[in-house]
Amino acid sequence: MRLARATGPTEDELLEAVQALVSRLEFINEANIALGVWMEAHRLCKEVDEQDTPYVALTLHLNGRLWTEDAQLKQALRAKGFDGFFEP
Asked: Do residues 49 and 73 lie in contact, with contact meaning Cβ atoms separated by under 8 Å?
């Protein structure tokens, strides 16, 4: 594996790290997000970029933080009262 050769760990160590990461992933079925959450996400996104609606809906559903570098989206969401951003 090219990544293992470039970074130093053995292939087994790299595969173990990937497995540890993947085992922590949790998949959310969009159907499990309440309609009201979808409506709120759409309200927040519709004037700037409706394609961001699923990301905002998931963020609202999980009561999480949205990680985006889209300055226009951030500005529009903040103007509508949303300020749940992840800032690394």
From this structure: yes
User: Number of C-alpha atoms within 13 angstroms, CB side, residue 11?
Assistant: 2
Tens of pLDDT along 22-59?
Answer: 999 999 999 999 999 999 999 999 999 999 999 999 99
Task: For helices 53-62 and 35-45, give the axis angle rounded to 10 degrees.
Answer: 130
Q: Which amino acid is at 61?
A: H
Q: CA 58, CA 60: separation in Å to the nearest integer? A: 5
- Whether this model's pTM surpasses 0.85: no
How far is the first Cα of the chain from the last one, in angstroms, to the nearest whole number?
30
Distance CA 40, CA 38 (A): 5
Residue 24 C-alpha from the chain's centroid: 15
Q: Are 66 and 55 in contact (CB under 8 A)?
A: yes
Q: How many CB atoms lie within 10 A of CB 66?
A: 19
